[in-house]
């Protein structure tokens, strides 16, 4: 199987998105969403993955993670999505790819932009019209942090609240739902493609640094201002689903930078 072809850029926060093959609703059954969350936790334990947020829907996933160990993200996605695909195909006596041939990774500036990306992920199923509030969707980081009492979390809550500028967990758990409610009241639920289809989102100086690290691959990449964000664009048609055979359902990402 081909592996992810990316630049290793440690210390950045990455927003990972991956769709089911041909955007089919292969994750529509609760057991498969639960298994995705289970294997996410296994990847966290095995590869010390630093997880800030996640959501699993019926046909795609979102994952917000910190790249702090070389290869941890790629190996984690191989484990999670390989096992989920294998289990589904065995149960359904199905053959062929479970996931699209590539996932997409966007670098997120932690200066204000992380908050916006967090809310974009948490409001995913509200935008889809499936629920009226993120607390109603149990396969998510929002539900884990704000609606469930448990001793351990998949999300690295301490790291998350430090990035978001909170001094204590109880302050975060009080104020963050208010951000969500304010966004819902304002009706800001439109899909913002730049969170899922660009190389990086952040302030201009941040994007300049990313372009410099991309070297020749970052040359001539366009930077635009979209809404209140600055966006470093991918080349056209980089995030497409193609019809390929993935017998073991493992990841085959091919973006222009290494994880």
Structure description:
The protein has 259 residues and is of the alpha+beta class. The chain contains nine helices and seven strands, in the order E-H-E-E-H-E-H-H-H-H-H-H-E-H-E-E. It has a seven-stranded mixed sheet, with helices on both faces. A hairpin with a 2-residue loop joins strand 6 (223-226) and strand 7. Helix 1 packs antiparallel against helix 2 (72-92). Mean pLDDT is 85; it is low at 1-5 and 237-259.
Supply database-style keywords.
7-stranded mixed beta sheet; disordered C terminus; single chain; 7 strands; 259 residues
SSE diagram, text form:
Layout: E1 13-19, H1 30-47, E2 50-56, E3 60-66, H2 72-92, E4 104-108, H3 113-122, H4 124-127, H5 141-146, H6 157-164, H7 169-186, H8 194-197, E5 198-202, H9 204-214, E6 223-226, E7 229-233
Parallel strand pairs: 4-5
Antiparallel strand pairs: 1-3, 1-4, 2-3, 5-7, 6-7
């Amino acid at each position: 199987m081909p592996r992810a072809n990316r630049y290793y850029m440690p210390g950045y926060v990455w927003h990972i998105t991956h769709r089911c093959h041909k955007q089919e609703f292969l994750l529509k059954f609760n057991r498969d969403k639960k298994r995705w969350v289970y294997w996410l936790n296994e990847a966290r334990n095995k590869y010390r993955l630093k997880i800030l947020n996640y959501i699993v829907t019926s046909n795609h996933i979102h994952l917000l993670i910190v790249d702090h160990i070389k290869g941890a993200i790629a190996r984690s996605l191989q484990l999670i999505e390989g096992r989920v695909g294998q289990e589904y195909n065995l149960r359904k006596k199905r053959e062929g790819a479970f996931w699209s041939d590539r996932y997409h990774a966007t670098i997120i500036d932690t200066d204000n932009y992380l908050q916006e990306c967090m809310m974009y992920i948490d409001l995913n199923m509200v935008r889809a019209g499936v629920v009226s509030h993120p607390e109603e969707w149990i396969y998510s980081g929002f539900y884990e942090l704000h609606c469930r009492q448990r001793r351990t979390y998949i999300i690295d809550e301490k790291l998350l609240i430090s990035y978001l500028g909170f001094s204590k967990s109880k302050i975060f758990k009080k104020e963050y739902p208010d951000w969500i409610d304010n966004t819902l009241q304002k009706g800001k639920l439109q899909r913002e493609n730049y969170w899922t289809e660009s190389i990086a989102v952040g302030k201009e100086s941040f994007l300049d640094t990313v372009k410099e690290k991309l070297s020749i691959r970052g040359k001539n990449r366009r930077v635009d201002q979209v809404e209140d964000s600055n966006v470093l664009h991918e080349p056209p048609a980089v995030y497409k689903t193609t019809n390929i055979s993935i017998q073991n359902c493992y990841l085959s990402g091919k973006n222009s930078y290494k994880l």
